[in-house]
Amino acid sequence: MTLPSVAARPTPCGLARHGLAACLLLAVVALASAAAAETGGEPVSVLERYLAAVYARDYAPAYDLISTADRQYKTREEQRAP
Description:
Layout: H1 19-39, H2 43-55, H3 59-64, H4 68-71, H5 76-80
């Protein structure tokens, strides 16, 4: 019995080695789309505002841009905690 080589094993999302980054980007875009639907903004605009707020460590506006489903996992106070 021979085991498949590392290269032959499936990776997350069934993508190549760099597929993990693609999966994460896809997840961020999906979350931004859900948030955009709730806030009435365009997905790209919401994503840009979210990333700008997180980069600036201004977490209150970033929290306002996440979807209601994501708010169930972390409260506004938990978002601010270091």
